[in-house]
Structure formats: structure tokens, C-alpha cells
Specification:
2 copies of one chain form a homodimer. The first copy, chain A, is an alpha/beta fold. Chain A contains 8 helices and 15 strands. The first copy, chain A, has helices at 11-21, 61-77, 106-116, 146-156, 171-181, 224-235, 254-260, 282-293, and strands spanning 2-6, 24-27, 29-32, 38-41, 50-54, 83-87, 121-125, 139-143, 161-165, 185-192, 199-203, 212-220, 240-248, 265-269, 277-279. In chain A, strand 5, helix 2 (61-77) and strand 6 form a beta-alpha-beta unit. Chains A and B meet through strand 4, helix 2 and helix 3 of A and strand 4, helix 2 and helix 3 of B.
Chain lengths: 294, 294
């Protein structure tokens, strides 16, 4: 026995996921009190049942995290069997290590709390750095959308595409997609001018002249890096520039600014729904969940 | 060795508290990223040091809770000796039990997370129901401001005051203050009309005609109950009505509405700072902390 529990605004995607899995989707009773505190209530019997919690954590991350914590602890109280937490976009995933002394490693704290409150599995899509999950007690599953990306690119852009990651951290993404497509890949190297301090970036080796280029990354927030990369690619004579990213935040009209810079198309998934959500990840999430609940 | 760590907006009250204790106050480095995520950094060495975390949780409770969780976990990582979490106003304190099947017991979840992340002590002021702390692993300290209330009332309103709690849940507060003052106390009983469903309330036994009355409660949110009690007391011929409450939220100009209803004075503490914060609780918090850190 299994069911999906979600919050009201995710009810539609939850129903689709549940229907894929042949189980029921239930909305958590949720409201915000006048003073700003969350109220959470599980309206069904979950005793000895596997519960999948579908929790969208963006925007308003802290509120959505806290209500998820309330829900997890309540499910444990009520005797749920196994709890599978599905956060298609995992908030705080970029703060996955201590970049400076004394910094909070926010992702580690978040995962620790999820575990402590009873999440047996944490499922997310294309987390910033999968290594960040090592050492977790809960089984963390990173759903990779790269085969879907390659298929989409093949069908809509073509196979003769150079795949570029904006930095070395995302190179493995570029590599995965390029290998499926059988094309070349590279990353942008950053140089800091010792005198002016100015940072310049350029593809390490590959020649983009008259080529179609696909820039790949996990998250687009303000889009600054993507725009910078686009400028450089245009100067180097790239024929077409496309951008693919898993999680789209597009702060301050970042998508419009990216298009204005000369990008021909932006492709995102529906982990965060937006105008550019051309690829769904819920079917691949369902594949993973099917293995967990049977 | 001990120090106080706080967030920037609480720096002033933190410095006062620290000066009372003869220790240092340090502000956590804190910012919000463009996408809405918190960044927390401890800018000092805390290894083997007792750390008092002063964390104000209102308004914007979920954000302030989450950044506090980040700070607690970081302090544990950095080897702090004992961690004393001071939340003068403890968010979610009214949701301290399961009023309906399936409800989150939000306060229990919150305390559990604080404990799990390493808070050895949790200090708060006049929590909604002190019983809610039973069963906590961390030592929970409920700072009671009632002696200060009695002193304030004696000096500013007089000793001939009837102390009333708006419901039976707050009766123990009325009793404590009244006993110090050597005066009488009572609570409002609520009756629901079986036919109309309308709720009426009135003091159980005490006669308020021509008397000064002090209504006491822990939190004023919308102030609806206080206004209702005031109406009834006026109809019953009370001479003067004063209101004392520990935590003032005053949603939607609740304080103005209470005054308009005929209340002569509103007295609050500074757990949440407002125009009616006439009593400080930080000196009594300091007394408790002094015992913990020496």
C-alpha cells in the first residue's frame, strides 16, 4: 500500500505522478495562520502505508521546507511505513560545502533534518553536486534527466551540436549529454586578470565557429554566467546558441535577458514550472518510485 | 568561556544581554541570496566555547527558524561546547498538541529539530503551555515574567485590581499575578448557545462592577478575544480595564482596536518589540543564563 501526499499547489502534478504509479494522490490540509505560521494536517490514515511526499520547495524555500518538516514528523507520529520525500528541486543545493571557514553547509543541514524526522528516501532531480549526498543516512536518489535532454536536442536542434558547460563543475553534465549524442563537449575556463581583477571566460579547446552550441547547467538563477558565455560564443562566431538547464528560477526576467543576448532557445524541465519547461521529469521520477514502492 | 551569537537585527538587544552577563556579543554573518535562500556564517572561533544563540523568531517565522537551524548545525560542526538557544518568543507555541486527528504538533517538531541539531538548552519566555516541554531531551527553560508584571501593576495601576484570564488555559497566569498582588482572580467562561451556536463569555464568579480589571494573556494576535472580554466587562460596569500580555503581535492594528474598545492601557514585554513593550524580560533571561554558563 502506498499513496502520495502533497501540498495544495502541487496537487495537479501529484495526481499525474500518482496515476503513473497507479496509486492515490492526497492533498495535505494546509493553511497559513494570520501571524504567518503554517498549519499542516494529514487528512487520511497512513498507518503502515508507504507515503511518498511530493514537496516543491521553490519559491519561498524556508516556508516550504518548514511545512515539509511538519508533515514528515506528523507522518512518523501517525505510523507511516516508509517515507519517500520527493523534492524535484532541492533548495539550498548550491551551498553543499564550506566555501569559507564558519559557513553553514546548508544542504547538509537540510538533509540531516529530513533524515532525522523520518525520510527514508530523498528523491531529487539533477542535484548541483551528487557527491553532496555521500554520508547521508537516508538513501538519496538523484534522478538524471540527461537522456531526455539528448533526445530533445536530437529532435529539436540536431545532433551536430557542441555541448558546453559554463564551468568545470558542470562539465560532467555536458559530457553525459554529448556522449549520448556522439558529439564533442567542453567547458568554459575562467581567468582572473591579476591587475584589473576582471574575470574572462572562454571555451577551453573547442572551436565553435559556425557551429551550433548547447550550453548546459543545472540551475539558472540570475543567468549572468549564461549571458556572459553567450556573448563570448557570439564573438567567436557560433552559429546558434541554445541553453538547457534543469531548474529555472529566472530571477529578474533572466530568461528575457538571455534571449535578448542572442540565445535561440531555452529549454528547462518542470521541476520548477515556467514558460521554458519543455521537458517533464515526472515520468523518470515515477520510474524510480516504482522500484521503491513495490 | 561563553559568548552570544545573534542575527544582525537583534544585535542591540544581544549586546545588552551580553553586557549584563559580562561576555561578548557577536553578529552572525547573514544574508539572503537573490533566490530567497539564507546564508549563515559564524565569524568567530567557537571551539570548546559555550555559545548562547539569541534568535528572534517573529515575524517571518519560517525563515527565522530555518536560519537558526543552519546556525545550530554549524556551531556543532565547529565544535562549540554547550549551545543555549534563547528564543524570547517561541514560534508555533500554540500548536502544542494534536487538536484534531492528523494535525502536525508543530511545537513538538520544532523543539525536536532544535534538539537534534545540538541545542542543549532552549530558553523562552512565558510559553503558551509549559507542559508542552515535557519529554524534551534538551533542557527547556520557561522564563516567567509574572513578578515583574505584579510590580508594574502595583506601581502603575494599583493593587486593587481584579486579574482575569480570557479563558481557563491562561488562568494560572492570572492566579500567579493576583497572588503576588494579594488580589482576586478569575477567568472567562465560554458558553455556546445550542440553538444559535453563538459563543458568549463572562467572568465565572467575580463581580467587576466599579472595579479595576486587568486581563492577562500570553499572546495577543488579532486581539479578538480581548476585545470581546472588554465589551463584556464594560457592560458589567468595570471602572477601568487594562491588558497585559507577554508577546504582542497586534495583527491588523489589533492594539488600536483594543484601545478603541475602551481599554485604558496595554502592557507588553519586549520579547517582540512594539509600542507597548513597557516591561523588559532580558534581565530575567540574563539571570537564568548566568546559572547556565558558570
Amino acid at each position: 500500500m502506498a499513496l502520495i501526499l502533497t501540498f495544495p499547489e502541487s496537487a495537479e502534478r501529484s495526481r499525474k505522478l500518482a496515476s503513473d504509479l497507479g496509486i492515490e494522490s492526497v492533498s495535505t490540509e494546509y493553511k497559513v495562520f494570520p501571524d504567518g505560521e503554517d498549519y499542516v494536517r494529514v487528512p487520511v490514515d497512513v498507518k503502515d502505508i508507504d507515503v511518498i511526499v511530493l514537496s516543491d520547495l521553490y519559491p519561498d524555500q524556508d516556508r516550504k521546507i518548514f511545512r515539509t518538516l511538519l508533515l514528515l514528523d506528523t507522518l512518523r507520529d501517525l505510523g507511516a511505513r516508509r517515507i519517500v520525500l520527493v523534492c524535484p528541486y532541492l533548495a539550498y543545493s548550491r551551498q553543499d560545502r564550506r566555501f569559507r571557514d564558519g559557513e553553514a553547509v546548508s544542504l547538509k543541514t537540510l538533509i540531516k533534518i529530513f533524515e532525522n524526522l523520518g525520510a527514508d528516501y530523498i528523491v531529487t532531480v539533477d542535484v548541483h553536486k551528487p557527491q553532496a549526498f555521500s554520508g547521508s543516512r537516508a538513501e538519496c536518489i538523484n534522478v538524471e534527466p540527461f537522456e531526455k535532454y539528448a533526445r530533445y536536442v536530437k529532435e529539436n536542434i540536431g545532433e551536430d551540436v557542441i555541448v558546453l558547460s559554463p564551468d568545470i563543475g558542470s562539465l560532467w553534465r555536458a559530457e553525459k549529454v554529448a556522449k549520448i549524442l556522439g558529439t564533442s563537449y567542453d567547458y568554459f575556463e575562467k581567468h582572473r586578470d591579476r591587475v584589473t581583477g576582471q574575470i574572462t571566460m572562454r571555451p577551453r579547446q573547442v572551436d565553435v565557429r559556425d557551429k551550433k552550441v548547447l550550453i548546459i547547467d543545472d540551475i539558472i538563477a540570475t543567468g549572468g554566467t549564461i549571458r556572459e558565455a553567450t556573448k563570448i560564443l557570439k564573438n567567436m562566431g557560433a552559429r546558434e546558441i541554445h541553453v538547457i538547464a534543469t531548474h529555472c528560477q529566472f530571477l529578474n526576467n533572466a530568461d528575457k535577458k538571455i534571449i535578448d543576448e542572442g540565445v535561440k532557445s531555452i529549454i528547462c524541465t518542470d521541476t520548477i514550472e515556467c514558460n521554458h519547461s519543455k521537458i517533464t521529469v515526472f515520468d523518470i521520477i515515477a520510474e524510480h518510485l516504482r522500484r521503491l514502492i513495490t
